[in-house]
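Q: How would the C-alpha cells look for this protein?
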Amino acid sequence: MPSLGEARLARALAVGLGFTLLAPVPAWGQADTTVLPPQEIGTVAPGQTRRGMLEPGDWTMSDGTLADVWYLQGTQGQRVVITLRSRAFDSYLQLLDQAGNKVAEDDDSGGGGGAARITFTFRTTERFQIVANNFGDDIRAGAYSLEVR
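A: Here is the predicted structure in C-alpha cell form.
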C-alpha cells in the first residue's frame, strides 16, 4: 500500500503529465540497476548515468507519446545538469517538482544529435521527477541514456 506522500505524488504525476498511475511507487534509494520495465519509476542521483527504453506500455503523455519517469532527490542550492540522449528519437526532457509542476524543460540544447539538457539549481529540498520523452507528437520508441551530474 503506498504511503500518503506516495499517493499524493502519484496524483501529481497523473495531473501534471496527463496519464494514469497504475504501478506502485518504489521507495527512494531502492536499488535499480537495469532498464526499467514499462511504467516503473526509477531513481537517479547526481553522478549517475541510467539506461532506459521508451516502449509500448510506458506512461502515455497527453499528446499520446511515450514517457519514462525518474525520481531525483534535490537539495536546496544544489545545481544539476540533466542530459537525455537517444539515437532512436529526438529527446525531450522535463523536470517536475514534487507537486507535479513543470520547473524546467528542454528539447535540443544537449550538445547535438537531438539530445536534451536541463541545467537547474534547486530552490527547495524535495524529490523531483524527471520525465524522459520524445519531442513532437509522433510516438517514438527506443533506447536512451539519462545522465545527471
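The mean pLDDT is 82.

Residues 4-24+36-148 form a domain with the Jelly Rolls fold (CATH 2.60.120.380).

Upvote if useful.
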